[in-house]
């Protein structure tokens, strides 16, 4: 239960301006984040402000449930191209994620390496900073940035710079159909080789994942989306490209179901003591998967993104990885949630936070 449940932007501004202590910003509460202080929920700020299907743009209040956004888009044959991950299942959260929360953490799923990240689709924002000042930046079209691009700065700041109250973003048409190629029994090294061959081919793919711990045996899945004729041709060409591996295929319905499971992190054990998200070079993925102490998980983005489950004491950062390891679930009281920043980056980050939240009250300590 939240301490504050405002229903307007002005109420949020007033709460922050009058607050004397730390404040924890919460959308749907589905990310397992806990911060000190009284909680401000954005779930009271709901509703789609404007939707222009022909222009592929939507504006919504930050607390609008993601499910509502996607249902409206689906009726118009559109979608969020960056395929945000749903953490609820593995974190045991029952509430619905919000569109503001999606952009606050730059939540980007399997299609990111093809379509781009959430921040690439965010056009404009309204937010309240740590002093209670209401600010806006960006607009409703792609070519709208003048001055500092606060839109990109806010996306991925996890509520440490301000409370998002409204977001404008770009949508894309849904694909007519999709199919997935399944390669069986590959090692992680073979899987990365196969996936990167597909990514580097002219036969555009929109998903590449390897599941080394699958109960039925290791499998590597490649997704192809688009118009029926194009999909059929590209599948045929990719089958030839990967002819040295044992293959099967998922039809449209099977492919949709499989990638929905990936989106909800279904291959992960929700009862695991720790869940890590590790971003690295695809070619580094297999070695890290083996040596990080993961007992379950999978590799996405053709090996560049690892979702791993492990014991509470496991810390893949101890390996000195050339990448970023984020603790999604685990003992954040002893292990920081985010990968430590390089000294120069940390210095700039602190200066930015001081400008937007000089008292350091918003989601205190989360990204420090």
Characterise this structure:
The structure is a single chain. The longest helix is centred in the middle third of the chain and has 14 residues. The protein has three domains: about 160 residues, Uridine Diphospho-n-acetylenolpyruvylglucosamine Reductase, domain 3; about 90 residues, Alpha-Beta Plaits (2-Layer Sandwich); about 55 residues, Alpha-Beta Plaits. The chain has eleven helices and 17 strands. The chain is α+β, with helices and mostly antiparallel strands and about 375 residues long. The strands form five sheets. A five-stranded antiparallel β-sheet has the order 3-4-8-6-7. Strands 11-12-10-13 form a four-stranded antiparallel β-sheet.
What is the number of E strands?
17
Q: Largest beta sheet: what is the strand line-up?
A: 3-4-8-6-7
Radius of gyration, in angstroms, nearest whole number = 21 Å
Distance between the termini: 26 Å
CATH A-level architecture of the largest domain: 2-Layer Sandwich
The string of secondary-structure elements, in order, is HEEEEHEHHHEEHEEEHEEHEHEHEEEH
Mean pLDDT: 94
């Amino acid at each position: 239960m939240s301490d504050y449940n405002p229903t307007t932007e002005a109420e949020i501004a007033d709460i922050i301006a009058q607050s004397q202590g730390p404040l924890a910003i919460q959308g749907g509460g589905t990310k397992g984040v806990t911060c000190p202080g009284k909680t401000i929920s954005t779930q009271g700020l709901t509703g789609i402000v404007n939707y222009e299907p022909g222009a592929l743009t939507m504006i919504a209040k930050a607390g609008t449930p993601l499910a509502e956004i996607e249902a409206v888009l689906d009726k118009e044959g559109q979608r969020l191209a960056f395929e945000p991950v749903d953490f609820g299942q593995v974190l045991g959260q029952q509430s619905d994620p919000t569109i503001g929360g999606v952009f606050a953490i730059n939540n980007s799923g399997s299609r990111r390496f093809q379509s781009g990240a959430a921040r690439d689709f965010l056009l404009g924002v309204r937010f309240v900073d740590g002093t209670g000042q209401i600010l806006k930046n960006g607009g409703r079209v792609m070519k709208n940035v003048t001055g500092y691009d606060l839109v990109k700065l806010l996306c991925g700041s996890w509520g440490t710079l301000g409370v998002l109250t409204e977001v404008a973003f770009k949508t894309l048409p849904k694909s007519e159909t999709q199919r997935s190629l399944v390669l069986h029994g590959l090692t992680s090294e073979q899987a990365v080789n196969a996936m990167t061959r597909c990514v580097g081919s002219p036969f555009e793919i929109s998903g590449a994942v390897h599941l080394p711990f699958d109960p039925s045996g290791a499998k590597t899945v490649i997704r192809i989306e688009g118009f029926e004729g194009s999909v059929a041709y590209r599948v045929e060409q990719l089958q030839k490209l990967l002819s040295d591996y044992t293959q099967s295929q998922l039809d449209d319905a099977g492919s949709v179901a499989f990638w929905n499971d990936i989106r909800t992190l279904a291959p992960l054990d929700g009862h695991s003591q720790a869940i890590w998200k590790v971003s690295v070079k695809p070619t580094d993925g297999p070695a890290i998967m083996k040596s990080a102490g993961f007992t379950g998980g999978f590799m996405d983005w053709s090996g560049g993104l690892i979702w791993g489950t492990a014991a509470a004491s496991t810390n893949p950062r101890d390996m000195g990885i050339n990448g970023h390891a984020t603790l999604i679930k685990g003992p954040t009281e002893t292990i920081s949630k985010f990968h430590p920043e390089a000294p120069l980056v940390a210095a700039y980050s602190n200066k930015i936070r001081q400008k937007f939240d000089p008292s350091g009250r918003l989601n205190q300590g989360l990204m420090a």
